[in-house]
Write a structure and sequence with these properties.
alpha+beta
Amino acid sequence: MEERANIERELRLLGELAPAGYFVALHIRFAAPLMTFHTYDKAWVDRYTAQAYAMRDPMTAWGFSTEGAARWSEIEVPDTFGIMREAAQYGLKFGVQLAYGPISSRSIAGLARGDREFTDAERDRAARIFARMHDMTDPPENLTRAQVEALRLVADGDRHAAAAAKLGISESALKARLTSARQRLMARTTAEAIQRAKDARLL
């Protein structure tokens, strides 16, 4: 899928800028992102998740209140729980925070390195890459009626044959509808397409 290849290309470019890893949350709607990608150390991700730091992270708070790009050291949001100090113990000593898009569909990312601060050029390049990622993953405003019907039946538990029979179409025609829905939602699987459609209030 061309869209997926484009996303992976942009992620590789971000990875080149962030030797200690990155975390990308695209199109956060109703408190949940439509897509996430990360290369942070697994031990830190596990710790972050177990402690529910996402709700307390000062960098995330900044991302919801500000659109732009800034070094972590420049962001003056109180770190009441010492999350950034703890992150440094996992190699995330220096970072850049990115926030892009309207608050109703905000994308937020953090890039880290352990050796030095990000330069202005690196920060600005990361911001451009991230903006492209946000724009290329903007969810569709709607799906076709045929796509919605196919996804809804599968979501309700119907197997392909049963769903096709209910719609009065062949099983191959149903699969074609599901494939087109996956492509439109940039999803790898039908289950992922269903979840993204629900998150975007399209289903």
